[in-house]
Amino acid sequence: MAHKIAVIGGDGIGPEVVAEALKVVRAAGVELETTDFDLGGARYLRDGTVLPDDLLAELREFDAILLGAVGTPEVPPGVIERGLLLKMRFELDQFVNLRPFTRPEAGIDFTVVRENTEGTYAGEGGFLRKGTPHEIATQGSVNTRRGVERCVRFAFELAASRPRKHLTLVHKTNVLTFAGDLWQRTFDEVAAEFAEVTTAYNHVDAACIYFVQDPQRYDVIVTDNLFGDILTDLGGAVSGGIGFAASANLDPTRQAPSMFEPVHGSAPDIAGQAKANPIAAILSAAMMLDLLGEDAAAERIRKACAASSNLNAPTPEIGDAVAARL
Ligand code: NAD
Ligand code: IPM
Ligand code: MN
User: Fold this and answer.
1) Known active-site residue 53
2) Is 121 one of the annotated active-site residues of the chain?
3) N or C: the chain end with fewer CB closer than 10 Å?
4) What pLDDT was estimated at residue 1?
5) Which ranges in 162-314 belong to alpha helices (H)?
6) Mean pLDDT computed over 89-110
7) Neighbours of 209 (CB within 10 A)
8) 191 Cβ contact list (under 8 Å, min separation 6)
């Protein structure tokens, strides 16, 4: 049976890299029944809609969602990012954003488990006296015991399944004494259930040093939404480049479809020039195949990507080269 996949190419390089991901999955012999969704900046500029609720309801019926990237300079910041990407992550309750980084020749092999529905992303806050000299803007960080615990528990389970069985909590407990305290206490309590997992804690600023100077120390990292966003662009940069960084937005309960997308954005600076590296999108599609039970195809795609990682060529040629190795 073909897997039913909702495809959102989105903006900028999004459609360019998603086309290569679908090309490679099909070359691996996996049958997909894809439905394209016209969502992103072009749609918004045409009719003012971002993600209408009837389309969101339609998305729920798919086995998975494959997304390129969204956001464009022609639309004010946040309209598409919050209205489309975050709306899907929140409404489909994809509470884990899983972002793996590997660079075998450098001994780098770690995965970031980023909380995906709370923190500063939740949308708490607003303006008072906007536009006056006394203007106030607040943007709070929402951390629920349930939200933190389910993410931390996922991270411990993941760490327990890996050879090194090591989990690092990254936060800023020395300053964010409310949110950080909730995260640290939750982490310590869940740790008691996982005696086989060794643990560490890094403040996020120090983690930035270690990401650059000693990324080999990490196995699994768990962190909040905003720290996870920033750290995973850095993770991409230190493990081969942002063009190789894949991600999965998971609802581990499987009540709603999960969404797979590169870590990078729509890259307006190189859009339409066939300069985008499609490997991040291809590896995101491989993560999708893991979830769909197509583990063997996913592994073959990862090997083919690794063998093509030195290729500097136009976007479709990189897709062709990966497909040819399958
Ligand atoms: P970006 O990730 O789009 O680009 C940052 C830099 O990385 C740019 O120099 C770009 O050329 C380069 N780059 C990104 N992907 C690449 C690839 N596959 N191959 C080669 N180079 C690549 O981040 P940005 O410029 O800060 O954001 C651009 C837009 O994308 C914004 O609207 C932002 O909100 C949005 N965005 C969307 C997502 C997403 O859809 N998941 C993620 C990040 C940013
Ligand atoms: C990412 C992106 C998104 C995020 C934006 C576009 C909302 O940067 O997926 O890393 O901040 O989560
Ligand atoms: Mn990001």
Assistant:
1) no
2) yes
3) N
4) 84
5) 179-191, 204-213, 225-238, 279-291, 295-307
6) 97
7) 11
8) 156, 167, 197, 199
pLDDT tens digits along 127-160: 999 999 999 999 999 999 999 999 999 999 999 9
- 290: its two tokens: 């893991």
Q: Please report which ligand is nearest the Cα atom of 265.
A: 1
* Rounded Cα gap, residues 116 and 78, in angstroms: 16
The tokens of 126 are what? 């607003």
Q: Given this model, what pLDDT does residue 318 score? A: 98
How many C-beta atoms surround the C-beta of residue 46 within 10 A? 9
To the nearest 10°, report the CA torsion of 83, 86, 92, 93.
-140
Residue of 67, 75, 85 best suited for mutating to test ligand 2, as the one with most atoms within 8 Å of CB: 85
Helices (H), 87-219: 87-91, 145-161, 179-191, 204-213
Q: Report the distance separating Cα 61 and Cα 84, nearest Å.
A: 17
Which ligand has its closest atom nearest to the C-alpha of 261? 1
The pLDDT score that the predictor gives to residue 240 is: 95
Q: Please state whether the predicted TM-score (pTM) of the whole model is above 0.85.
A: yes
